Amino acid sequence: FSRSDSSLLSMERTPVHAYTISALLLALLALLFHTLLQLGNSWHRYYVNCQRLRCFPEPPRRNWLLGHLGMVGNTEEGMQFVDELVGRYGHSCLWWFGPWLPILRLFHPEAVKPVLLESAAIAPKDYTFYGFLKPWLGDGLLLSNGAKWVRHRRMLTPAFHFDILKPYVKIFNQSTDIMHAKWLRLVASGSTSLDMFEQVSLMTLDSLQKCVFSYNSNCQETSSDYIAAILELSSLVVRRQHRLLLHWDFLYHLTPDGWRFQRACNTVHRFTADVVQRRHQALNRLGREAWLKSKQGKTVDFIDILLLAKDEDGQDLSEEDIAAEADTFMFEGHDTTASGLSWVLYNLACHPEYQKRCHGFSNCSMPFSTMCIKESLRLHPPVTAVSRRCTEDIKLPDGRVLPKGNICLISIYGTHHNPAVWPEPQVSLVTLFNPLNSKNKPPLAFMPFSAGPRNCIGQNFAMAEMKVVLALTLLRFTVRLDESRPVRRKPELILRSENGLWLHLEPLGPSCESRLPAPRS
Asked: Known binding site for heme: residues?
């Protein structure tokens, strides 16, 4: 090419480069404008939301950056701080997690009722507090939302009918007998003080495995990989909640805790999938009628009920759905029931006069023990709070509005200890649950199993097991406080006690048990 040709090509390329650079600059400007517009909209929504929330009282913050973060810990002092909040504000208050995340704490029946009784579509659960359970529990009833939750709830409700639960009483008795036999051996060897949480948790896991899978792991006497995995998953989820940096999945999966969590999930999922697949294959091989005949005279377990469940269109649950519901029931059923039982034994140890009435022949009636259980659930609810994030504005009876999109933390513990509802809320008074005395209480003054469409579907199962285990325990043992081990409450996934809940056990004579009626659910 000549020099003139090269100059011509250079002149032709120059406009192309200019157009390209101009286009890139325009794209960058458009992106910047879009980002600024989004930030402006977000700031406007944040400002409007803050203005709407001003009608709710707000305790003093730590500072502008942290808000109230860290002011209520998972400790005894944190529980006492909640008591102070409830006593000071009575109804509700506004809480800030950092400068951007407002949370409405509700602790009065009038405040919690409009949220809990709203439909599941308008008041779904908030995943800020439940999301860490997703890899373990999948889309079971605890974590699912929308149409899937509605479908599964309808299909599973018959599984918790009283008639279905009656055969489980025999299993509750068997698992309790195993626990009591172990207690007698430990007491005989000199170990009179035992950690109730450790003992009762193994018993509830044992009974649940039998009720859900018809499987006996003998976990109260020997180690079980499946049971160990469930216990490890529960502790890992709690530990992750307390470490903000590990809230991001990609960071958590790189840590030793994340590796242990994945291994434990695999152990649980393998066990559940194996049981479901084998049971499904047997159903398909025999056919529905023959399979049902093979179950006659046997206890129908939770997996059987799920395999037979059909929706309005005649569709079954998938194996994945059945496994998720079974894992959810194992998680929710063992921890909450163990917490409820451990605390009722503790409260009876604190109040020998109530325990004496349960031991006495004429007064050892199920109605009185049920009153003891309910008062213990009021004082020490296994689940201290539940959360919702409403998709629509919710109007309260006093005219204030809970703006949509905000997290509502419904404090079950706070409602149960609200002096505006329960005079002297820290004082144990079993007669509060005498039917004659409870008539004037608001319906949601007592809600240990939550309330509304998303209440605990297994509450009848839990209450039946607690009644049976408590009755058998008080027929065979007297429980006393271990004064050397002070009790400090610790709210985690369920309400526990720091360093365990230790009680002294004193076996009763066999004559006491023989002259008492057998416990009924």
From this structure: 456
DSSP symbols for 461-491: HHHHHHHHHHHHHHHHEEEEE-TTS---EEE
- Is the distance from CB of 358 to CB of 369 less than 8 angstroms? yes
Q: Cα separations (Å) of 452 from 120, 421, 456? A: 9, 20, 9
Alpha helices in 53-193 (DSSP H): 76-89, 109-116, 127-130, 134-137, 146-156, 162-165, 168-188
Give per-residue pLDDT as tens, 431-490. Answer: 777 776 777 788 899 999 999 999 999 999 999 999 999 999 999 999 999 999 999 999
Which amino acids are annotated as binding site, given as ranges? 456
Confidence (pLDDT) at 436? 67
Do residues 104 and 92 lie in contact, with contact meaning Cβ atoms separated by under 8 Å? Answer: yes
**Six token digits for residue 445:** 């003054």
CA 346 – CA 344 distance, rounded (Å)? 5
Contact status, residue 246 vs residue 257, Cβ threshold 8 Å: yes
User: CATH number of the domain at 56-514, please?
Assistant: 1.10.630.10
Structure tokens at 323: 């496994």
Residue-range domain boundaries for the chain: 3-53, 56-514
- Determine contact, residues 149/120, Cβ cutoff 8 Å: yes
Task: Specify which residues 502 forms β-bridges with.
Answer: 195
Q: What angle do CA 71, 493, 209 make, to 5 degrees?
A: 170
pLDDT tens column, 215-250: 888 889 988 899 889 989 988 988 888 787 888 888
Instruction: List CB contacts of 283: < 8 A, sequence separation 6 or more.
Output: 291, 307
Residue 195, classed as helix, strand or coil, is strand
pLDDT at res. 510: 64
- In the numeric block, which tokens belong to residue 70? 């860290």
Average pLDDT of span 402-414: 95
Q: What letter represents residue 386's amino acid?
A: V
* Closest among 72, 92, 96 to 82, alpha carbons compared: 72
Q: Is-contact 327 137, C-beta < 8 A?
A: yes
Count CB neighbours of 5 within 10 A.
Answer: 9
Closest CA to 220 of 193, 195, 201, 196: 201
pLDDT on residue 496: 92
pLDDT at 315 over 60: yes
pLDDT of 193 strictly over 90:
yes
**pLDDT over threshold 60, residue 131:** yes
pLDDT at res. 434: 75
Question: 358: pLDDT confidence band, cut at 50, 70 and 90?
Answer: confident
Element counts in the chain: helices (H) and strands (E): 20, 11
